[in-house]
């Protein structure tokens, strides 16, 4: 179960003066939405920075550095050299969502071609070993294929792509390795451990974005209204297997248990009714009225219309592609459709994150329902990695339980 420990660095609660808002001059209505948000939240006018960034959802690494990271870094160096004024950064509608991996050089292409030829040879040898039922040789060949796959991924620079927001969390760092994830110093799960390569100059990042500007305004308005009235509704948690208890687990099983634990944490709070399911089949259309919380898995890039969402609802779906786009009209990824259907806050990956990159549901929802911290702080304490694929969408100052409510 989650222990609710308030961080001495990210601590209750984030204030409007500590929020830096980032808009894009090149994107329609980005500044208007930024000013709308800042006025509603009382964020000082000088806490706005406008970029001349690409207005596409994806950008390359050079454009990210030149048009996004560098001007933000310069602004922070000038206006907050000690790193104590701005604790949170908000990327607005119109800021790119994802940074592509770098383009391959001619030398990279040549090396990649050679490795792929070796891979083809090994796969042929694996097929032969399978036909001959040579288990010893098959094991050795599969190990060799795994090693070769890792080399191919390194040459492809596959793990140098990331969410813009997750990269910006480290914008104050002088330098860091661009390949793969980096541990988040705020993550509760790392407390008491010695973690290598842990960046120390971190700024928490949230995003006010969605399929349309109207949805962004609705997110802002719903968050403020819910803070006054309290979040009311039902919490739905959709595990795939029965609760395994205290068994030692990893991977999918560990996160499935975390969904069970999240249901227990919310139920003990007595703030809302909880519906927990442990069947392999996901909640089906019409089964989840008045949803205030949700977490489940696994329906890849295919939202299931099981929910009517309460005002101010918070939820996320554990799958590999659920924030690959917020703008593609035909896409059914969960983040995009949940925003269209009415949630106020969600999170998801812009590319394959691996399950351990998701905030543990019991930790995220446990912190949120405790009521002392803002959405951004709850995410900061439950998000394992930066410079990786995860995005938080919502008003970073949102506190759905700022007013104490209990289940009827």
Task: Please give the structural blueprint.
Blueprint: E1 19-24, H1 30-41, E2 48-51, E3 58-59, H2 61-79, E4 88-92, E5 98-99, H3 106-132, H4 135-156, E6 162-163, H5 164-168, E7 182-183, E8 204-208, H6 213-229, E9 234-238, H7 251-269, E10 273-277, E11 288-296, E12 307-317, H8 334-341, E13 346-349, H9 361-370, H10 375-382, E14 385-386, E15 390-393
Parallel strand pairs: 1-2, 1-4, 3-5, 4-8, 9-10, 9-11, 11-12
Antiparallel strand pairs: 5-6, 7-14, 13-15
Question: How would you concisely characterize the structure shown here?
Answer:
The protein is of the alpha/beta class and 408 residues long. The chain has helices at residues 30-41, 61-79, 106-132, 135-156, 164-168, 213-229, 251-269, 334-341, 361-370, 375-382; strands at residues 19-24, 48-51, 58-59, 88-92, 98-99, 162-163, 182-183, 204-208, 234-238, 273-277, 288-296, 307-317, 346-349, 385-386, 390-393. It has 3 domains: 16-101 and 163-204, no CATH class; 106-156; 212-393, Rossmann fold, CATH 3.40.50.
List descriptors.
15 strands, disordered N terminus, single chain, 408 residues, four-stranded parallel β-sheet, 10 helices, globular, alpha/beta, Rossmann fold
Note down, in words, how this protein is organized:
- With 408 residues, the protein is an alpha/beta fold.
- It folds into 3 domains: 16-101 and 163-204, no CATH class; 106-156; 212-393, Rossmann fold (3-Layer(aba) Sandwich).
- 36% of the residues lie in helices and 17% in strands.
- The protein contains 10 helices and 15 strands.
- The protein has helices at residues 30-41, 61-79, 106-132, 135-156, 164-168, 213-229, 251-269, 334-341, 361-370, 375-382; strands at residues 19-24, 48-51, 58-59, 88-92, 98-99, 162-163, 182-183, 204-208, 234-238, 273-277, 288-296, 307-317, 346-349, 385-386, 390-393.
- The protein has a 4-stranded parallel β-sheet, with helices on both faces. Strands 10-9-11-12 form a 4-stranded parallel β-sheet, sandwiched between helices. Strands 3-5-6 form a 3-stranded mixed β-sheet.
- α1 runs parallel beside α6.
- The protein is globular, with a radius of gyration of 22 Å.
- The model is unreliable at 1-9 (pLDDT under 50).
